Amino acid sequence: MKNRRMRLMAIFAAGVLSVTSMGGIVTAHAEETLSVPAEEAGAGAVQMDGKDAQAVEDASVAASEGLIAGSFKPSEIAQPAQDTYEYPFLGMKLGISKDLKEQMEKKNISMFTDERWNDNADAVTYAIASWCTLTDEQKDAEVDKMGTGYDDWLKSLSRVGVIGMYDEESQKDLDRITGCTEHKELCTSSDGKYKYYLSTNKDADADLLKDVEGIEVTLTEMTPFQMLSAFDQPQDTSDSTEAAEGTNVGKFETTGVDGKTYTQDIFSKYDLTMVNIFTTWCSPCVNEIPDLEKLYQEMKDKGVGVVGVTLDTVGSDGKQDEEAVKKAQVLQEKTKASYPFLIPDSGMMNGRLNGISAFPETFFVDKNGNIVGETYSGSHSLDEWKEIVEKELENVTEGK
To answer: What local confidence, expressed as pLDDT, does residue 55 receive?
Structure first.
């Protein structure tokens, strides 16, 4: 969960879209800011100025930097040696020979992955697996997670060969992307949007080059992207679908980031409650919190409540992530949000919170805990939310 969160953070919070994903470590390029300007944060991003804007920017930067601060040894995040590698998002399966696997186990050659996303963050422009040789100095090097340190280190390696998938534009720049000089087209994706290439350096060690050239590439059905790394395995979202179609958030007891205890009774105070699911690293999520607070203040007397659920405060192991809780506390303080930020309960609100992979996501609950109305993806302006809430409120109060 934490690895996945870091990749998503890079996509949503770093401006993002040009990131390097390395087995759970994500580097943000130095020329890009970690706080997405409102005009670039995506559809529905909230425009703010003055103290609110500065508070949100400070909180967003703090949350983002907290996830990727520090340094690491890049040689240690090489892909493990194994017989096969399956990448459903790329529609590709790689079969590794016994000789190449042995060379990887001996660290005579190491495998690294790299990817770049398009401006909409809904598909990669290219994704590559590289086999490289490392000097002793490169094996011992440490680089900062932020900045161009990892990219610079990766470019300094001697490439033996690269297998990758490229969109039309990236195909024009294979030499630079791969660091190789020879390129052999392997196949085309089933949707026709990508081509696969084996790229090699003719001056590489002959035996290693032969091993890389012998990698068996099999084209498989391409799984639709889920806002994860192209080299991740797809998440099973069936539980999320079933939960979304469920009728009630059930009984629960949980804690807010303010340390108070909350139960399903939180919904009984209002005819309609907006449940806004967000993460501390998602800039569009953070940017709309001040407007959600304004919405709450304007509509609570009309029977409308707001509840935030900070999804990244609990890991996939079900344990509370204290670092994320602290970030959520900072966000609540900086944005002056008076409505609660809940930590997910053990039952994930009767399963409704399971499998969510795009943020923010918002749904509505009536005073009995029944899930009502539509689910809304993405952030929205105050006026847009008012219109949505008025419609949903009218629907739940028609029968009263």
So the answer is: 52
What is the bridge-based pairing of β-strands 92-95 and 124-133?
Answer: unpaired
Give the separation between CA 23 and CA 25, rounded to whole angstroms.
Answer: 6
| 72-90 pLDDT per residue, tens | 888 988 999 999 999 999 9
Beta partners for residue 93, in sequence order: 86, 218
pLDDT in tens, 163-206: 999 999 999 999 999 999 999 999 998 788 999 999 999 999 99
Question: Hey, which residues does 143 pair with through a beta bridge?
Answer: 72
Higher pLDDT, 203 or 17: 203
Going through 151-310 in order, the beta strands assigned E by DSSP cover 158-166, 182-188, 195-200, 216-219, 253-255, 261-263, 272-278, 304-310
Closest CA to 46 of 373, 278, 249: 278
Supply the DSSP symbol for 320: B
How far apart (Å, rounded) are the C-alpha atoms in residues 210 and 204?
10
Local structure of 372: helix, strand or coil = strand
- pLDDT of 144 higher than 50: yes
How far apart, in whole angstroms, are the C-alpha atoms of residue 147 and residue 184? 32
pTM of this prediction exceeds 0.70:
no
Gap between the Cα atoms of 203 and 374, Å rounded: 59
Question: What residues pair up with 104 in beta bridges, in sequence order?
Answer: none
Q: How far is CA 114 from CA 84, 144, 198, 232, in A?
A: 18, 17, 15, 12
**Sheet containing 92-95: order of strands:** 84-87, 92-95, 216-219
